[in-house]
Amino acid sequence: MLILGVALAYLREFHATLWAPVIMHAVLNSLTTGAIVFALMA
Description:
By secondary structure, this protein is mainly α. The protein has one domain (2-41). It contains 2 helices and no strands. Helix 1 packs antiparallel against helix 2 (19-41). It is elongated, with a radius of gyration of 13 Å.
């Protein structure tokens, strides 16, 4: 969680917009959800 927080903060500072960390958060949530659904289906 610490690494994720630092990465999101870095994106916020590097891109000077909130969209980059929001998109990264959405992608990570989608990957996690996909992995869980795949594990339940297998």
